[in-house]
Amino acid sequence: MDHITETPTMKGPADRFTGDVYLNMLQAPAEPGRLAVGLVRFTPGARTNWHSHALGQTLYVTDGIGLVGTRDGNIVRVAAGQTVICPAGEEHWHGATGTTLMAHIAMVVGDGTGDGTTWLEPVTDEQYGQPS
Questions:
Q1: Could you please report the per-residue DSSP string of 5-16?
Q2: What's the confidence (pLDDT) of residue 132?
Q3: For a surface tag, which of 3, 50, 59, 131 has the fewest beta carbons within 10 Å of its beta carbon?
Q4: Looking at the 3D structure of the chain, how many domains does it have?
Q5: Chain centroid to CA 20
Q6: What's the CATH number where 90 sits?
């Protein structure tokens, strides 16, 4: 058993996020397992770029209110205690609302060559929007 008492907080890189995002890796993929888990905190208005995961992604919201959007223009509002499952290959983004913080635990299973994430272009302000 490994008892991890602290993980360093890293600022999310500007080539993958808009706004201020902070990440604590809880589990890095290590053979034979391929699970990657991170606690991600978004300040108001902060969000990921468009991206997809070879084997999908599960998001569990731990705090605040957030948004998850897909290429078809669907944006769902999520709150603490809710889970979103993004299917394999689906291009999507996630982040905080314009007025609230949001934190989630992001879980992905790597594809054997990394975490299986393909990072794409930033989400525009028009795509980000605010659902009613």
A1: ----EEEPPTTT
A2: 39
A3: 3
A4: 1
A5: 13
A6: 2.60.120.10
